[in-house]
Amino acid sequence: MKLKCSSKPAFPWFGMDIGGSLVKLVYFEPKDITAEEEQEEVENLKSIRRYLTSNTAYGKTGVRDVHLELRNLTICGRTGNLHFIRFPTAAMHRFIQMGRDKHFSSLHTTLCATGGGAYKFENDFRTMADLELLKLDELDCLIQGLLYIDSVGFNGHPECYYFENPSDTQNCIKRPCCLDNLFPMLLVNIGSGVSILAVYAKDDYKRVTGSSLGGGTFLGLCCLLTGCETFEEALEMASKGDSTNVDKLVKDIYGGDYQRFGLQGSAVASSFGHMMSKEKRESISKEDLARATLVTITNNIGSIARMCAVNEKIERVVFVGNFLRINTVSTKLLAYAMDFWSKGQLRALFLEHEGYFGAVGAFLELLKSSDDA
Amino acid sequence: MALSSGADRGSHSMDKSITLPPDEIFRNLENAKRFAIDIGGSLTKLAYYSTVQHKVAKVRSFDHSAKETEGDPLYEISVQEEITARLHFIKFENAYIETCLDFIKDHLVNTETKVIKATGGGAHKFKDLIEKKLKLKVDKEDEMTCLIKGCNFVLKNIPHEAFVYAKHADSEFRFQNTHPDIFPYLLINIGSGVSIVKVEAEDKFERIGGSSIGGGTFWGLGALLTKTKRFDELLQLASKGQHTNVDMLVKDIYGGAYGSLGLTGDLIASSFGKSATTDKEFSKEDMAKSLLHMISNDIGQLACLYAKLHNLTRVYFGGFFIRGHPVTMHTITYSINFFTKGEVQALFLRHEGYLGAIGAFLKGAEEDNPNQYSWGENYAGSSGLMSVSPELNPVQRARSGTFDMLEMDRLERQLVNLPLLQDPTSYIPDTVDLTEDVLAREYWLYCFEEALDGVVKRAIASQKDQPKAVERAEKFRQKYRHKLQTLRHQPFAYGSLTVRSLLDTREHCLNEFNFPDPYSKIKQKENDMALKYYLKVVKSVEELSWEQRQFTLVKGLLAGNVFDWGAKAVSDVLESDPEFGFEQAKLQLQERPWLVDAYNQWIERLKGPPHKCALFFVDNSGIDIILGVFPFIRELLIRGTEVVLASNSGPALNDVTNSELQILTERIAAMDPVIHTALKEDRLALVQNGSSSPCLDLSRLDKVLATVVRERGTDLVIIEGMGRAIHTNYYAMLSCESLKLAVIKNSWLAERLGGKIFSVVFKYEVPSNIREIKS
């Protein structure tokens, strides 16, 4: 994918995606700064660059995903590294304050932002930090960002991967893959909630549906059920639990398969179905509950995605969003669900930069917008 | 998945004694056979087939070879015992299973019965108990098969079975017309999980999908989150909660709406999205509400995806999650509306809880071929739909100790649509829906209550020499009054409330207490009297000019219709002044122009070629049929039009029944050569309409009638009387010419229509396609 950039926008180059739970930030660190440039570079800019690139954690909750960093990227004639940073939306006001303290407004850059927060916090940016946001549609950004990252690859490796033998837990292996043509694809973005898009071409897509049962639901329910506090903690618990202590399976009701309808005994008949019984409620662990929550939410997303794929007649289902971060339980389950229920017709695909495409899309708009200017 | 099993509801301290005398619940056990049982997570549904012996009034012509003496009645009335088939369905809490089984065992006489069909998640749990108590072999049937069979059965046999739920509308329940073809449809059964089944024909269905997020998820997760054990209590909590405290809405993310996608700010972006924090406590109510929304929306979304994929628009919801709970019906309805933008409506069923039991019963009764008959809901023996909202009726909602019943009578005749309905799918028999029209409802309920004394008196008078008539009549009064009271609070109990349903319920209650025909003697007396004047009336008409004759015949028809014991204003006059004669009735009639007056068009039509065949739905006995209808159809016969007289199969008020009409026609034929010849040449035919109602449902008529109508090329339908032409069918669109005529014998109704009492409705309609051909 080529970007047209006749004139370069002023540094710093940022793209921001303010979601319901997380803020995703991409930052381009130019590595080809000439001595002359270095001299002209204002102190503010330098300090921002140093702050972001020399740390991997910011404050209590900000994190730089070092493993996702894209190195030696050439954009608009500049070469550098693309950094991926995230922090909770709850910390947004502290972030804006930092922007004010670091006199961000003096840098004359455009702050490209997408996600619902671009609208919600627009006024705060203006009044607290004297910053104007360039608000961008989140779905446009998501698709542009995704296509761009897929085109540049992941430091020489493919961005995209799938699972081989998804229906065989023993031999299920993650495999990178290069797709000659992504279209048409069903794009399932799992953030706090879920959005499902049918994408036919770079600029031709529609939102098929959405679901309120997403990553926010997983974490919200886990917090209530287990007292955990973070996504990482919830996933850690889930990895140790057994959902069959919580869910009622077909075999729990029929003693085996429900042959009349060809349902396997191991299929979940009722999520949390065992929890109707007091004895069972007293016998399960927090880990079991976390696992059951994860499996319930994941299977439901898989089910809706599969139905949409069939209705839209699309065979490639691409799952993105931060719910999938460090979440191999869900990615494998989704791969299995797509394969099993479609009898091999559908294929689940995943992308390494899961939740950052919206921010990348916003970043690309910055380069484009200055081009227009 | 449709697994209603679920964990056992903790047996909370509840009075295990049955509040109703068991013989009023498990009725007609003496002849009961073909038992079936459906045991769910908390409720048991029992089904059986039985025969009911009840009295019917029969008329028999005297042997006329003997010389007639003045004062001898025209025919003999005898009350005979008749045996009819009835299906009984009883629903009760699982806590009563043992008590109920004991009662059944003690009263079961029929020894042919060897097996009991069983279905439902609890069937295997109670298998041993049932086998031990009843000494019957438990034969398990597939749950889903039973459910579908039951669903097909109620959709086919119970008008107003399906409804749309609208929480904030004037009437929460909007009942649907019975569609002549019930297939294909989608059944979403929400038990502990969700099963989505596509039904294409009686025995053709397929589980096309499902979800593990169902009623068990609401119950299980709800119990964990709120420490509330019972399903009903969880729903109660949910109905009081604010989900916006727990859910992340679009406006929480955007600060407002997401305009470019048309997503409103109040839309839930992430269920439980706000609860991902440990610094806040959330109320039980709020969490329960959020959970309810999450699950309902999710199920609604899946249902829509499947409906779209399979191109289906009729989607019924059932299972314990739904089961008459206004809270879940509302959230599911909301979700379906949201996801389909109103293209698909969520439909619910009045007897949803019985589907499994009905299906299991049908499986066991296949050799009796129950599907070959038509069945009708018996309003006297059925409990009707339960209370609406938990706030209004907490006692009934809790259902403790309450037994719910459904009884269905096997109808003697198979019922079908009148082939002359313009659009059977949109035909609604009733003119006014009293569930929606509050003023009309209040008036009619009052009116029926007022008339109750008179009906009781008449019932007793009809059986002066019969045992316990007074006692039975008193029981009738209590039962019907109770029904009226129930309907005052729950007008939707038996589908849309209409004048027809009020009349039918009264007939069912009268039959229940063995008053099969309270008007038999009055009808006999009136028929007798009217016959004496027949020739005189015919002669006087014959002397008139053509124009005058037509008008006199129509006036005669209308005047005859004034004689109606069904209308209170008239029954008062008739009771106080027996001399109230035919001529006087004519004087009472409104002068032309009538309230609805298409007489001129009718006369113009009569100047044209004769009709091929006229179908006449007759009304009252006595003066109406003999001095009104017969002279009128006599003229039609002379014109060369064949006539089919359709009368009631069973008695209702003073309406002439088919067997009475047979005798009357014979007698008239004996006097009048025109009628005699017409009968002999089969140009005059008598058919029964398949009903015992003072009103008329053209979508449920005797199959024979439909055949006759088709074979004879019927091109004119005449509907006479308030019950058949005003309360019902006033707006019915037919594919041929029609006459609807009646005298409004009720001042309230007359006023509503913009007239006075004894106003005349003379409606002559020609469908537009026929009109075009003519002109």
Automatic annotation (TrEMBL), chain A:
The keyword Lipid biosynthesis does not apply. Transmembrane segments: none annotated. It is found in: Cytoplasm. One of its GO terms (molecular function) is pantothenate kinase activity. Pfam families: Fumble. Keywords: ATP-binding, Coenzyme A biosynthesis, Cytoplasm, Kinase, Nucleotide-binding, Phosphoprotein, Transferase. Pathway: Cofactor biosynthesis; coenzyme A biosynthesis; CoA from (R)-pantothenate: step 1/5. This is pantothenate kinase. The gene is pank1a.
Automatic annotation (TrEMBL), chain B:
The keyword RNA-binding does not apply. Gene3D superfamilies: 3.30.420.40, 3.30.420.510, AF1104-like (1.20.1700.10), Uncharacterised protein PF01937, DUF89, domain 2 (1.10.285.20), Uncharacterised protein PF01937, DUF89, domain 3 (3.40.50.10880). It comes from the Eukaryota. Residues 448-755 form the Damage-control phosphatase ARMT1-like metal-binding domain. It catalyses: (R)-4'-phosphopantetheine sulfonate + H2O = (R)-pantetheine sulfonate + phosphate; (R)-4'-phosphopantetheine + H2O = (R)-pantetheine + phosphate; (R)-4'-phospho-S-sulfopantetheine + H2O = (R)-S-sulfopantetheine + phosphate. It is found in: Cytoplasm. One of its GO terms (cellular component) is nucleus. Its main location: cytoplasm. Keywords: Acetylation, ATP-binding, Coenzyme A biosynthesis, Cytoplasm, Hydrolase, Manganese, Metal-binding, Nickel, Nitration, Nucleotide-binding, Phosphoprotein. One of its GO terms (molecular function) is metal ion binding. GO terms for biological process: coenzyme A biosynthetic process. SUPFAM superfamilies: Actin-like ATPase domain, AF1104-like. Its cofactor is Mn(2+); Ni(2+). InterPro entries: ARMT-1-like_metal-bd_sf, ARMT1-like_metal-bd, At2g17340_3_helix_bundle, ATPase_NBD, PanK_long, Type_II_PanK. Phosphatase which shows a preference for 4'-phosphopantetheine and its oxidatively damaged forms (sulfonate or S-sulfonate), providing strong indirect evidence that the phosphatase activity pre-empts damage in the coenzyme A (CoA) pathway. Hydrolyzing excess 4'-phosphopantetheine could constitute a directed overflow mechanism to prevent its oxidation to the S-sulfonate, sulfonate, or other forms. Hydrolyzing 4'-phosphopantetheine sulfonate or S-sulfonate would forestall their conversion to inactive forms of CoA and acyl carrier protein. In the N-terminal section; belongs to the type II pantothenate kinase family. Belongs to the type II pantothenate kinase family. This is 4'-phosphopantetheine phosphatase. It comes from Carassius auratus (Goldfish). The lineage of its organism: Eukaryota, Metazoa, Chordata, Craniata, Vertebrata. The gene is LOC113069358.
